[in-house]
Structure formats: C-alpha cells, structure tokens
Design a protein that fits this description.
Chains A, B: This is Response regulator transcription factor. Two copies of one chain form a homodimer. By secondary structure, chain A is an alpha/beta fold. Chain A contains ten helices and six strands, in the order βαβαβαβαβαβααααα. The first copy, chain A, has a six-stranded parallel beta sheet, sandwiched between helices. In chain A, helix 3 runs parallel beside helix 4, helix 7 crosses helix 10 and helix 8 crosses helix 9. The N and C termini of chain A lie far apart (66 Å). The first copy, chain A, binds a DNA duplex through helix 7 and helix 9.
DNA sequence: GTGCCATGAGGTCATATGACTGCCATTTCT
DNA sequence: AGAAATGGCAGTCATATGACCTCATGGCAC
C-alpha cells in the first residue's frame, strides 16, 4: 500500500485527486495540506511514501516545502504536480530534489503510474517537461563549459600565436621580456579558456575557432 | 510521411527496425547506414525528417556523427537508440543535440510514438534514462555552484576575518603591508568563491559555513 | 532647495611573478 | 642491461599590483 500526502491549496483539486486515488487499490491518501508549511508538518507526522506537491500555494510554495522536507529526510519521494510547466518551475523543482514533475493536464491513469514509479525510486517527468528540462540542461552545460570565455585577452592571444610557432616557454619569455613563470601562467589560463589540457590541443582549437 | 534514416552497425537490428517501421503507415525508411560516417553522407543526400542513431558503431560512433550532423543542420532531428543507458551515453547524446534517447529494450509501439514526438519537435527520453539525466543534471548544477570552492586559501581566510571586523580595504592593506589593490583583488576572488556579491554577504556566508 | 561634480570606497580585470608538482629523457650507478 | 638519480620543461596555484568602473555621498554653485 502506497501512503500519500497531498499538498494543494485548492479544495476542489484535492477532492478530485482524492477521488482518483480511491480508484487505485494500492494507494491511500493519508493526509492533505493546503500550503507548504502544513505539508512539512504533516510529512513529519505521517511519513508518507509519496508526496504530491502543488507549487503555487500561500504561506510557503511547494518547491520550498519540497526542499525542506528533503533536508529532513533525504529519501522523501516528492512528485511535483502543477498547472504550468515553465522552465523555472521544472528546474527548481528537480534541483530541490523532487523525484518527478507532472503537469495537471495528465490523465488519472498517468498520475497513478507516475506515483508507482516514484514509489519504486524511479523518476517521473511528463513528456512536455522533459523538453524543458533538456533545454535547461544544455544551457547549464554551456555555462559550465564557458564560465568566462570572454575570448582571450591580448597577452593570451599573443602567446597562443607564439605557441603555434612551436616556441618554448623560455623562448616566449625572452621575446616578450617576461619571466618564464609568467608565460606558464598565461598558458595555463589560456588552456582553461579553451577547455584543453596542453599546448598542442590549444593550437588545434585556436585554428578551429579562427583565433590564429 | 516521416522520412527516416537508420544508422546501426548490426544488419539484424536494421532489418528488425525496418520491419517495425513498415507497419507504420506514416513512416518510410529512406536510407540505412552501418556507421557514423555513412550516416553523415546519407543525411546530406536524403535530408530525412528523423535519424535513428545507434551509438556503438565502427569508424565513427553515433554520438560524434550526431554532433556533426547537427553542425551541418541545426534542425536535424536525431533520436539515439542504444542497448545501454549509462550516464555517459545519455549525457553526451543529449548534449550533442539529440532530440531523444531510447533504450533498445522499448517496444515497437513506443519507438513509433517517440519518432512522431521527435518529428513534431518534442523531446523523447525513455523513463529509465530520465533518471540518469536527472542525476547528471543535479551533479552539473552542483558543480556549477561550486566551480572551485577548494575553500579559501590562507590570505583569503585572513582577509575575510578582517572584513568581519568591519575593517576597510585601506585598513586591511596597512595591517598586512600590502597594496590596497591587492586587498580588493583577494576580496573579489573570495566573493566569487562564496558565491556572493559584497562583503556583508561574505561575512554572513562565512559564519554559516563556520569559516569564522 | 536643487542639481552637478569631485571624491572615495568597493569591486573587477589584466598583468606579473615564483614556488611547487609531475613527466620524461638522459645520464649515471650497480 | 636495468635501476636510480638528475635535470629540464610543462603546467598549476597562491601571491601581488595597478588600471579602470560604478555608486553613493557630500559640498558647492546657482
């Protein structure tokens, strides 16, 4: 039997979902909360297997509540269920630790199936939200790869060109009247900006990106 | 009619999928590739609506091929279809720009449905792989928040403590016999490591994390 | 009183240096 | 010959500095 806590500020929605869950032999709605704060209290009181959590609620929103519940119990299984699937909601919910994200547009059967998945420890994200998640994922990866690739500065550019001519650090240092350590440092920073690990690859990428 | 290009090195798999697609009235398999390089050539030749791409192939793997096809045509709709759903494959495929990721364990009906989704511009990731994607997403978010929080170094630590005592940059500079600019620089780095934007917040976070 | 400018403080960025680590090859010791 | 010491080169990290930007504030001209 899957014990469920439902948090939603709309009475009608709670009643509707309650009805749906009654149709399922293996599910029992053990408590209902009308806002995030209540959800946290009731979670501690009932230790339900799965929490169905709305986002837009007074007092404390569902994402904040989810975060706090998971701080209390890292194994909490929270399924966020909301009307709108904007990027912000999907991202924040899943990063808060929710095991699933569904739009209220789904059918009762899909909801039940998602609850079972989450209860088994699997993830449940509806098809539309996956697209949103993917977009967010790629954006994040992009940011991660170029945290500060404001392109190379003058010195780095200059030194990359000399590297491409197979000059050693010492040679470059003499040419630019700088300490060898300084050259090494510029190269180190340059490698990071180009996301590579040695001068050969840097030259390669430099040519690809038309920096040379 | 959805025109499909299939890339898989196993003849048997190609034949099987070919059979499955023949059952669908709205799909036509227009070309078959046995490796990534062929897939690229055939993509350019036939401009299919959707590409079904295996990962493990000789000559050039499917992920690399997907990446190159998308470089040629940003609207290419590629659905990666593979035997194993390890984190590495899911992450690399989706970051390469694939619109979907499915395990070969799925049913023919699910494959057709996924192909239609992808053709409509939606994303299609099977339930198991979503869990993997989510894990990777959270890891990445974690990395992003602490890119290099190897904790503060001695100087930064020292200066944070002085900031907490409401010393100005000039005062700190005199106390440590350093230039004021140097202090500003340390503080700037320190703010980045603590993910905040001014000294007040830095002290706040410093206390929270027990650095003070 | 109002508006403008000078000033100073905080913060960011490019620049510069040397200590230290790790790898590789060459030489030296056994 | 094989193992061990040595030296050089690449790369990373903490350290240090000053030029420049922004913003708030206070005084001055009107």
């Amino acid at each position: 039997m899957i014990n469920i806590l439902l948090a939603d500020d709309q009475q009608l929605m709670r009643d509707g979902i309650s009805m749906l869950l009654e149709l399922e032999e293996d599910m029992a709605l053990v408590a209902e909360a009308a806002n995030g704060r209540e959800a946290i209290e009731l979670y501690q009181q009932y230790s339900p297997d799965v929490v169905l959590m709305d986002i837009e609620m007074p007092t404390m929103d569902g994402i904040e509540a989810a975060k706090r519940i998971i701080e209390l119990d890292a194994n909490a299984k929270i399924l966020v269920l909301t009307t709108f699937g904007q990027e912000d909601y999907v991202r924040r919910s899943l990063l808060a630790g929710a095991r699933g994200f569904l739009l209220k547009a789904i059918s009762g059967a899909d909801l039940s199936s998602a609850i079972r998945k989450v209860q088994r420890g699997e993830a449940a994200v509806d098809a539309q939200s996956i697209g949103v998640l993917l977009q967010s994922y790629r954006d994040m990866a992009g940011t991660l790869q170029n945290p500060n690739s404001t392109l190379l500065n003058r010195r780095e550019q200059e030194i990359l060109e000399l590297i491409a001519q197979h000059k050693s650090n010492r040679e470059i240092a003499v040419m630019l009247s700088l300490a060898e350590g300084t050259i090494k440092n510029y190269i180190s920073q340059l490698l990071e900006k180009l996301q590579v690990h040695d001068r050969k690859q840097a030259v390669q990428i430099g040519r690809d990106k038309g920096l040379l």
